[in-house]
Amino acid sequence: MSLSADPVAPVAAAAMLAYGAALWPAAPERRWPIQALFTAWVLHALVLLTGVGAWGVEGQGLRLGFAPVLSFTVWIVLAVHGLESRFLPLSGPRRALALAGLLAIALAWSFPGEVRAVAHSRWAPLHWVLGLTSYGLFGAAVLHAVLLDTADARLRQRGPGIGSGTIGAGLPLLKLERLTFRFVEAGFVVLTLALLLGMQSEGGWSWDRKAVLSLLGWGTFAALIAGRLWRGWRGRQATRWLYVGTLLLLLAYVGTRFVYEVVLHRQPG
Predict the structure, then answer these.
(1) Is the pTM of this model over 0.85?
(2) Which tens digit of pLDDT belongs to each residue from 107-129?
(3) Which residue from 95, 66, 83 is spatially nearest to 140, judged by alpha carbons?
(4) Can you tell me the distance from the alpha carbon of 164 to that of 72, in angstroms, rounded to the nearest whole number?
(5) CA atoms of 70 and 76, how far apart (whole Å)
(6) Is the dihedral of CA 123, 128, 129, 130 positive or negative?
(7) pLDDT (tens digit, 9 = 90+) per residue, 175-211?
């Protein structure tokens, strides 16, 4: 896709350059990598709004595909991280998030998906918005879970700076764990609404791969929440359920669309 043929390409290229700058190693006290990451996030939002990731410029509808959905998910995770970083010491994932943002835009640029009308029912647009939001919330939960598991592993090994049960600049592990599963609970509520509206918007439930995997993911998250509430699941026992549920949810849409778009080279009906 050339720069002259795609008006969104210069914005996407600028966003990738900003993410690349945020990837550069720097001392923790330096502010420019965080500023670069914020700039990239803003440019990423423009990319989503102007065609590569969300509303297509050539028609009315939502741009759908495995790469646009991943791009939007990463953008939501970055937004959550940016908000949290203003109140909590969570600067560690900066380079990983910058790399994820760069790869997400590159994928959405290379595999832009298709513009599909979602107004065949009054509930369809809200169904898609809620579905994408649930992806972002579970993505944020996974980010926190990875930080939690890493800190827990270092604590078990009695690594430097972890003996007091903190992560990074001093965030208590128990607080990080609570944050992780707050995102799980919020994502579960949003996913439940998305599935209910999907049943209404599609005019009946269709037992295809996407529906089955979505329900399996929903059931996994329900079991995780119930297990924490009634069985006291914590630590890696809980995060494993989170990873499995998120993987099932990704396979439901992103995996299915990837097979159609990249392996079979056609759009699903």
Answers:
(1) no
(2) 988 887 776 655 556 667 788 88
(3) 83
(4) 36
(5) 10
(6) positive
(7) 888 889 999 999 999 999 999 887 776 555 567 788 8
